[in-house]
Specification:
Elements: H1 3-15, E1 40-48, E2 55-65, H2 70-80, H3 94-111, H4 118-133, E3 137-139, H5 141-146, E4 158-160, H6 167-182, E5 186-190, H7 210-226, E6 234-240, H8 246-265, E7 285-291, H9 293-301, E8 304-308, E9 315-320, H10 321-335, E10 339-342, H11 343-348, E11 373-381, H12 394-414, H13 420-429, E12 432-437, H14 439-445, H15 453-481, H16 491-506, H17 513-536, H18 550-555, E13 570-574, E14 580-584, H19 587-594, H20 599-612, H21 640-650, E15 661-664, H22 670-682, E16 687-692, E17 740-747, E18 750-758, E19 764-770, H23 777-794, H24 799-806, E20 815-819, E21 822-825, H25 828-840, H26 843-849, H27 854-876, H28 887-897, H29 909-917, E22 934-936, E23 939-941
Parallel strand pairs: 4-5, 5-6, 6-7, 7-10, 11-12, 15-16
Antiparallel strand pairs: 1-2, 3-11, 4-11, 8-9, 10-16, 13-14, 17-18, 18-19, 20-21, 22-23
């Protein structure tokens, strides 16, 4: 579809603006319902705890399209289907869920005059249904939780509260925050209006200060979390940099981290979710400092900065700006808090300054607007707009943004809110947050390194097109149903911000034909939207944010969340019928083909990645293409400034901000944190947070204390001594009488005997090897080797450790054996430890080591043959149109065969990455199912059940 076609369709929409929107089909076919275009299948959803195998959810016979992955279906079933499990009222089909939401949107749109005719409303319903059915976009979680149910129809995920300097206001804050947490959403608040602990009360006493009141709010959040909310409480606490209590605020969580370490070393359970962690304060909130340009310039120039009282604005103290900035960076280095929010930049892009300043954000810092307001989110799946030839479906993207932003605005018409103050502000300013997911996958698939000018060019272009289209549609909606109530008093500043966005779009320097085409269309959208807005105003004070897209990203089967790069090249995948497997991300072969590699090389490179987890030294891969495959973690991880530069590239085209944490290596210094925070300000970001690897005690899945990487010590005047707790293994001896078995073997003509003794409660504990005559050198070496292995086993060395070290060891004698399960051996050691693995290790552990019985190999070959047959069928259908090809059906057939292959015992992509890297990653365990979570923006998401640690 040409650019002229897009413009023509928009002209037709504007022509009907006075009587309602005329809606045209984009994804659907007239006379065919979207449900009739897909193949449906029944599945059983049984969710088990990865740690102990217990069942924590079960619903059988649920209905989903066959193209939906097991993960996506499981998450929708467990999270979004309404009704008590096991009752007839419980939803059991994706059709029911989509109909419940979409029909509510359509009815509200018709009621409030959004559509020109009933036929237009029907097309709107079908288009939304098609897009949700095919995972083109998703609303945020509260929509799926609440819309169309008997519950209050809360549609917003992000809330901002306000606290004044009075006890009534502070107690209201506790109550309002609790109501928001109860509904599974998060909120943020700026405490800077509360007078400092260095100011007087009217009674003559000294004020407590905001930090003291944070304790009560933190305890409330922890209580509601432990009381069984849908997820842990998510909150943001902010303090302005000129507040007299700023230093106390900055170090609160760092001091608590010192306490955690001391308690841990004393033997208390201080891991995340541990029984003793609840005694530590301030752990339920993200903390951020709101810094001004004045402060940052004082840091730059080495000057002083004034801290001012809250009552009269009088200077209470002048501090060294660099010293305070170092304290902030030091605390962030120690415990990842506080982050920074750049106040003047935020308010320079504020569309409604006549109503009030922007003082706070939601917990993940992507929503920044008026106090006592909320924002509902929706995110597009960018990979759905990638053409087979590497191009981008610009026209379909534009039309999809139109549909989504219209639906989001309609939702405010019927939405309920936790407090009346929030409801009034949201209805008056109608803040929306359209965004996207899968940017990292899109860049990799098209051969663009995430940390490159070309990658940033594509990202900036897409973001500009999305927001430009959203505001253009918002201006058209203003012509149909009116501008937002607060527009009249904010008309000029709103227009000024729109011009700033358009000017930033003009500064994009596209690299390549794809980015050039997108920027060209984005320029049209901004020009046309501002022209309409000058006449009609805008329906929404805010249009876009970049959210974490945690749960909904999994619902859409996205490889990457929000603006993030890929987590790693190898990921964990659940299979139809149960089981799991690790696969190389499907974007990798697509990227290799886009870079011009032939199929033979693609297969070899993918095999290398599957074995090693990275592309370094992959056969035939050019070193200049390595950066295309750089990820957030792993062998070639993206440098911290690479993340910052990507954020800076897209920030001018976002109404709000970006939920993202800049990951830093453990060896990073306090000076490195200072540089990141300073560069964020210079590059025009609105908010920025860092996380230094291993800076927190809560290290799930770590059996012992890890040796930290060498890093510059924190800048502290006193020398600290950390207590070291040494753990020694204990030998578990075998009883006098123990079960054993002896196997005779022959390797390359050399004969011998292997005797293996077990503990009565199972588990290998002793090995004896006999080869050659008694008294010979070889017999003596074998005896000594047997004793060494046996003692190691009794001290707790896992058998799989020995197996991984000694299998594939090559020396004579080698060759044919007389064992039907091990036909060839590279050496006697290779044979012995393969035999021990077959006799004493479970199948899934052996599968990771590549050791199978003859029967298992035969089953594996049958599965591969069936998979090849399925692929051949797909190749025969290659002449069919792309949109009707049933590629997911091929994947399903492969998956159906694949469960016969044992899979590694991991529960998430993060755990798989740990297995590849051989070290633990800083991510919490899911509070619902115990799976290791993975990063999603500044939050974490569980791939097992979809729970998130913050915004959805």
């Amino acid at each position: 579809m040409s650019g002229e076609g897009v413009t023509a369709s928009k002209s037709r929409t504007r022509a009907a603006a006075t009587t309602g929107l005329k809606v045209e089909r984009v994804w659907t076919t007239e006379g065919v319902h979207p449900y009739d275009e897909v193949t449906w299948e029944r599945r059983d959803v049984v969710m088990t705890n990865w740690r102990d195998g217990s069942i924590n959810f079960e619903q059988r016979g649920v209905e989903f399209p066959d193209s939906w992955s097991v993960n996506a279906a499981n998450i929708v079933t467990t999270k979004y289907f309404r009704g008590a499990v096991g009752t007839p009222e419980r939803e059991w089909s994706l059709k029911q869920l989509i109909d419940r939401v979409v029909r509510t949107y359509r009815a509200a749109g018709e009621q409030h005059g959004y559509f020109a005719t009933g036929a237009d409303a029907e097309i709107f319903e079908h288009e939304l249904t098609w897009m949700l059915l095919h995972q083109v976009f998703s609303f945020n979680s509260p929509v799926w939780f609440n819309v169309g149910t008997a519950s209050p129809q809360q549609v917003s995920a992000c809330f901002i509260l306000a606290v004044d300097d009075s006890m009534d206001s502070i107690l209201d804050w506790y109550k309002e925050e609790g109501l928001i947490f109860k509904g599974g959403s998060g909120s943020g608040v700026n405490l800077s209006r509360i007078r400092s602990s260095r100011e007087l009360l009217s009674s003559g006493g000294t004020a407590s200060g905001p930090v003291s009141f944070m304790r009560g709010a933190d305890a409330s959040a922890g209580t509601i979390k432990s009381g069984g909310a849908t997820r842990r409480a998510a909150k943001m606490v902010i303090l302005d940099v000129d507040h007299p209590d700023i230093e106390e605020f900055v170090v609160t969580k760092a001091r608590e981290e010192h306490k955690i370490r001391a308690l841990r070393d004393a033997g208390f359970d201080m891991d995340l979710g541990g029984s003793d962690i609840v005694s530590v304060q301030y752990q339920n909130a993200n903390n951020s400092v709101r810094v001004s340009d004045e402060f940052m310039r004082a840091v730059q120039d080495g000057g002083t900065f004034d801290l001012r009282g809250r009552l009269d604005g009088a200077v209470i103290e002048s501090v060294d700006a660099k010293g305070l900035f170092r304290t902030i960076s030091q605390a962030a280095w120690e415990c990842a808090d506080p982050g920074l929010q750049y106040d003047d930049t935020i308010n320079d892009w504020h569309t409604c300054p006549e109503t009030g300043r922007i003082t706070a954000s939601n917990p993940c810092s992507e929503y920044l607007h008026l106090d006592n307001s909320s924002c509902n989110l929706a995110s597009l799946n960018l990979m759905k707009f990638l053409r087979a030839d590497g191009g981008f479906e610009v026209a379909k993207f534009v039309r999809s943004v139109e549909f989504v932003i219209t639906a989001m605005d309609i939702s405010i018409c019927f939405a309920d809110f936790p407090t009346e103050k929030i409801g009034e502000t949201t209805r008056a300013y109608r803040q929306l947050g359209i965004g996207y997911a899968n940017l990292g996958a899109l860049l990799m698939a098209t051969g663009h390194p995430y940390d490159s000018e070309s990658g940033r060019s594509v990202a900036a272009a897409i973001t500009s097109l999305m927001t430009g289209t959203a505001y253009r549609r918002s201006a058209e909606l203003a012509g149909v149903v009116g501008a937002y109530d607060g527009y009249a008093r904010n008309a000029e500043p709103h227009k000024r911000v729109m011009r700033k966005h358009a000017a930033a779009n003009d500064e994009i320097k596209p690299t390549g034909t794809v980015a050039t085409e997108i920027v060209r269309e984005a320029t049209k959208q901004w020009t046309q939207g501002n022209k309409i807005g000058d006449k009609s105003g805008w329906r929404n004070a805010q249009a876009s944010v970049l959210a974490p897209t945690g749960t909904i990203g999994l619902m859409m089967d996205c490889d990457t969340t929000g603006v993030e790069p890929d987590l790693a090249l190898v990921k964990f995948k659940k299979l139809v019928g149960g089981g799991s497997m690790q696969i190389v991300n499907q974007t990798v072969p697509r990227a290799l083909r886009s870079l011009g590699y032939p199929e033979e090389q693609v297969e070899a490179i993918v095999e290398h990645i599957a074995d090693h987890g990275h592309v370094v030294d992959a056969p035939g891969l050019k070193p200049e293409h390595y950066p295309v495959f750089d990820c957030a973690m792993g062998e070639r991880s993206i440098a911290p400034m690479g993340h910052v530069r990507m954020m800076a590239a897209v920030q001018p085209f976002i109404s709000g901000a970006i939920s993202k944490t800049v990951n830093m290596p453990e060896a990073a210094t306090v000076a490195d944190v200072e540089q990141i925070y300073f560069e964020g300000w210079k590059l025009g970001l609105k908010a920025l947070a860092i996380y230094r690897d291993n800076c927190k005690v809560g290290q799930p899945l770590s059996a012992s204390k890890r040796e930290p990487a060498k890093a510059a010590p924190p800048a502290a005047p006193e020398k600290t001594v950390e207590k070291v707790v040494e753990y020694r293994p204990v030998r578990k001896r075998l009883p006098k009488k123990r079960p054993s078995e002896t196997v005779s073997f022959s390797v390359g003509g050399a004969e011998g005997y292997l005797t293996a003794s077990s503990y009565p409660d199972d588990g290998l504990g002793e090995v004896f090897l006999k080869m050659s005559k008694q008294g010979s050198t070889l017999a003596g070496v074998m005896d000594a080797f047997s004793v060494a292995i046996s003692i190691g086993l009794q001290y707790g060395v896992p058998l799989e450790t020995y197996v991984s070290k000694f299998t594939n060891m090559r020396f004579e004698p080698a060759g044919m054996t007389d064992d039907p399960d091990i036909r060839m051996a590279a050496s006697v050691m290779d044979y012995i430890f393969r035999r021990l693995a077959l006799d004493f290790l479970p199948q899934e552990r052996r599968a990771e080591l590549g050791i199978f019985t003859a029967k298992e190999r035969a089953a594996q070959l049958r599965a591969e043959a069936e998979a090849e047959s399925a692929v051949d069928l797909a190749a025969m259908a290659a002449s069919a149109p792309v949109e009707t090809r049933s590629e997911p059906a091929v994947e399903r057939q492969v998956e159906a065969a694949a469960p016969e292959r044992p899979a590694p015992q991991v529960g998430s992509s993060t755990e798989l990455l740990e297995a590849v890297l051989g070290k633990a990653q800083d991510a919490p365990l899911c509070f619902t199912c115990g799976t290791k979570m993975r990063p999603a923006g500044s939050c974490y998401v569980c791939e097992g059940c979809g729970s998130t640690s913050g915004c959805s």
